[in-house]
Amino acid sequence: MKWLTFATDNSVRHGYVDGEEIVVTGDGDLSEVVAGTATESPITRVPLAGARILAPLLKPGKIIAAAANYQSHVTESGAQERDERIATPRLFLKPDSSLIGHEAPVELDPMTRELDWEVELAVVIGAVARRVSEADALKYVFGYATSNDISARSLELGEERDDAAQSAFFDWLEGKWLDGSAPIGPFLVSADEVADPQDLALTLLVNGEVKQSGNTSEMIHDVAELVSFSSRLMTLNPGDIILTGTPAGVGATTGEYLAPGDVMVAEVAGLGELHTPVILPAQID
Prior knowledge:
The structure is a single chain. With 285 residues, the chain is an alpha+beta fold. The protein folds into 2 domains: 54 residues, Roll (SH3 type barrels), CATH 2.30.30; 226 residues, Fumarylacetoacetase-like, C-terminal domain (Fumarylacetoacetate hydrolase, domain 2). It has 6 helices and 20 strands. Strands 1, 2, 3, 4, 5, 6, 7, 11, 12, 15 and 18 form an 11-stranded mixed sheet that branches. A 5-stranded mixed sheet has the order 9-20-19-16-17, with no helix packed on it. The radius of gyration is 18 Å and the shape is globular.
């Protein structure tokens, strides 16, 4: 099913897509559906058109993200290819305040002039996973969504700073944490409708121009390995999200970055287009 969370007036509800309608099955976001604790039954139907679609999960426990998971993205910056025989996933966390939904705007934070895009496959965990094997890992996945790991490639903090090597690393890390930097949606597609998560085309457009085009088959660490490896480091709970990395084509390669008025459209095949406009901070209500 194509599940979604949406808002009408002052209420948040969830349901699944049936043609041009949403079959509403409950209040709140999809947390109970993902955890398997909801008693779902159709309540009503509303038109899909015009619904304000939110992120599928409004307060996930964790947002885990994989860095340097496509060789094309690794090498476009001039780095050497990673040796896949000995490479392990490079993971970091994003805060839940970075999460926004379809068509929600991201502000161009005054701390950066280098706001960048990264289309990614998002994986949503559906069962408690601790030290699971790669062979069993996909059994713990509820579903998949389109995501965009928006990244500030530089931070202007307005104060004198040291030049230690660690500072550059933490600038990179903190540049992943800005509000609105993890758009996800519009849908959360159940795993049974995704025949192979390692055969999905990814694209990202800015103002209608293709910037990224790749396929999840190019991942260095596939979904099963990312779930398994993450579960060795921490317990994964229903609703946790894993962003699986991005292919080549980011703005940092050419020095082209986002500006107010730009619109990003990220898409993973079969999971829906995720629209994210860029605005000035003063435009946020």
